[in-house]
């Protein structure tokens, strides 16, 4: 029945003020107000409907995305939305589109790498969307290793132009979003060559298509790279390929803020510090961590609500079956993900502070915290995106068979999310960067150089190498100091152990390669420590709202005890814990599951997601799952006719045993 | 270039006879011959083309599958293929279709549960495909708990008929493959009610559609349940919904081999042992384990070949970059999956023996080994399908960005595989069944009842509770007796620990529920032990072919040391190992990676998969990846025109700043 809240009983169980928790999740009262208003604006506008997305063919899907993206822009202009509101609107439209790259990569690249003059020329065009740009970096044969790019930009002093060229097949630009069918311009990364000398990879603004009729300019081959994982998902986006056949651009279209080529073809560096690029990197990674918490929280919201709706087994005397959320096996898989969503939210919030801090220091020419900030953001990007991708798939499995239906929203959520594990740095490659930083830090211990920021704990290495866990009963695991010591000791010992093993190799690079799998594990331990410590820090703050802080304490406990149990091998192998203490942690974890259970629905309600944004029948706010699943099934194109297309050609001859005369 | 083998250098490195390994993988020379012949027959027939599958709309896709399935049947008849060959042909066509359910569920249900008379009536029709059947068990609100099904079959003694009815929305049949659009008949599971008494769930043969024009019969509502996860994948299948409005069928369409309803409406049990159903269950699960090894080996084959083709970083003096397969981080993720594929193959082979053994015992009315066989197959189904689903996704990630392209084959392989974690018993529910069996076994220790089969090790519980690992150097981990003791001690200790914790609860069921997450871990430990022991058993056999056995020893070592490292927490918590010994295991594991490296390509070649079956450009036998990726991209429907559909309606007004007049 419409209008009935099937989860009302669950909502009554909550032991905290949900509205206050919404503020905590959103980050501030202001952020909540904006998100709430914009998400409802999108949800109530039929033009943004998305429940048909997984049934559309590629061409229909792409055209529909063009329509939505342009319509969204029209609304943004009409409603005179602020930059913050516009960005929220695009977020709640929830459909990858060329605008993501235009606003998220093309504009920032010009702002970050262009001279003032270049910015004055190009940004007004981009801001009004009179040109649409993308970010053409990766190539068919070159992803992670930017220095291996093959596209060339050769300066021709006779004409004062660069000649952009794709010398090989593997140098074809490949993957850039918005490139395939939409972008009129691109920031193209290519090897700068002047006077026969290769100066490495630089960015160039290149026009790709006519602004009159959208046809590719001479010398340019451009197209879509084809279908990607999942229904709907990233197939709304025209990830593209691009080849240049000696395409000429004026010299002033090289992005020259950091390096320049003069009229004579001389290569020069400006006095703008190259480290500026790290500021952007911290910013981009911060948004990725926040996106991880959004994606994971969507999946958790769906799985939690459906786990309360769904009943299996346990019927007594013909009564209703047990809600699956009451099973410990379900709780032990679901609640750590709920806790992770909150944990990633708070670490994302902290990264916003870090970005401000780094930016201020860069402006004061203080580069001292950069290596730590770089390692920390690399590690957090890797940790949160991997956990989120796995977590979404786990949530899908937690919904049983129905999680496999597109109408559950989970298949598309997974497919659209997983690229985050690969883009902006492959997650394993990033962990190896963290590991390098850890090994360097260890090697500098005792030199008087004090580790700062998230690695400061290494300054207490002597204590951390020898301390032993003091836990005597399960509740001792609620002591945050105890927990911090445990995670610090584990991370420090794993790093030191790797450093010792490395020192056995004559060639350090060879050792690093040989031990890289262990180094990755040490990096993970370090990154988990950061997330745990930022969650614990959050709890030190004043958090208003009845019962809100208490719920966050429970979630924090679940987060770190879940990690402790999952990685108990690390804690035991480094001899910080004994098996008895590990078992007590597990007992405490189980006790916390019982505490979170009555609050579970309210804790996902606090995300404040509309049914439109969730895009899941299983995750409906009102819990009215089964009638809506039934209704949705009939909308499949296959149900347009009772007897399917193909019956007369293929099935009838089979059933009538007339196959010999059938044309197959 | 066509015809060039870009992996030739890799193939030359192999230290074993690949042809002999092909026999090992296939199971026998005969099996290899059949697989080789039939897979090539499919690959060379353009009618079975599948590289366009992910680009088709739902209706096109479904119609195309109808065509292929019927064409496959035509070829089977024309070529007079044997049952084995026909089944292989359907396997290599590699597209879920109604025929899977017709042959795999409908026919076996009638054979297993029908009387001789019923078999004589229905099987000839089914064998000739004059009727097409499916298996209608699960309902919208009822999956795992078969006893909770709501559909009723009420006997009407006046007319000698059953009245099949769907009393609620949640009783709608939901998910059965082949039901939505194709099947003319179904085996329907419904609660049998005679004279007001509910006799529980039984099977009934029900005609759904007219054999004349395929329209649903009166009282029957049938349709497709809509889009499922992934492009192509299971969307080729018409998983269906079905509702009955008092549909009448003759009494003789209840499957009456085990229970009967007489003309007078009396409910009777025959003397056919109910345990017979377990024989079928062992058979079905055995095929699922073999399928797991097939799916995982496909993913591993793709990821291994592409890891040899792909180069990233490490270029020295402008030379080529390093093949990614040479990175230890890549090896430590890829090679355990390669080893797992072989491990699952051998445990699947052993399950074939178990099925024969169980069948023979059942025929002799010996039910003594059934509980053990039931627990063992439940656990192996769960273990192998979970590891395979995760493993496919890991292989996809191991291919970097390009693994996200449908042309890599991996997205579809994942999407089509994951349901195996849910169907035929949810994987967690199955592990809890294993745990129940383990707890029962522990409780019976000392009663004189000797544990048999895969649980026999529990008979040595005293030794296993107190023994300590003898490993002193890394190579000691190559000693299979040592390894068996380690895995047995871990499994036994985890079970005993659970049993002790359970005994603290006054109500055992409550304790089982509370500790279920721990019980699942104990069950996993037991199941991993089974897989390890069957791999080690395999190595005791005579295995011909130069170097073949040696390679299998290396893979076996990788399999168990990978598990040992991944679960070192279990081994350390149960105090069988000390941290030093765990570290030595890791050292040995790393050494084995180096040994398998030169043989990696040959080890995946031994699967003998055609490029058609693999369906992956990244996994091409000849390694000619990049030109073929480039070629494939142009086939996307979006590339049919240079300027995309929607440019004039949406983009041009945007670029020309004429949005105000645009119709969006």
TrEMBL record, chains A, B:
GO terms for cellular component: peroxisome. It comes from the Eukaryota. FAD binds at residues 138, 177. It comes from Sesamum indicum (Oriental sesame). It holds the Pfam family Acyl-CoA_ox_N. Residues 134-236 form the Acyl-CoA oxidase/dehydrogenase middle domain. Residues 278-439 form the Acyl-CoA oxidase C-alpha1 domain. GO terms for molecular function: acyl-CoA oxidase activity; FAD binding; fatty acid binding. Its cofactor is FAD. InterPro entries: ACOX_C_alpha1 (IPR055060), Acyl-CoA_ox_N (IPR029320), Acyl-CoA_Oxase/DH_mid-dom (IPR006091), Acyl-CoA_Oxase/DH_mid-dom_sf (IPR046373), Acyl-CoA_oxidase (IPR012258), Acyl-CoA_oxidase_C (IPR002655), AcylCo_DH-like_C (IPR036250), AcylCoA_DH/ox_N_sf (IPR037069). This is Acyl-coenzyme A oxidase. Residues 17-132 form the Acyl-coenzyme A oxidase N-terminal domain. The active site is at 424 (proton acceptor). Belongs to the acyl-CoA oxidase family. One of its GO terms (biological process) is lipid homeostasis. The gene is LOC105155937. Keywords: FAD, Fatty acid metabolism, Flavoprotein, Lipid metabolism, Oxidoreductase, Peroxisome.
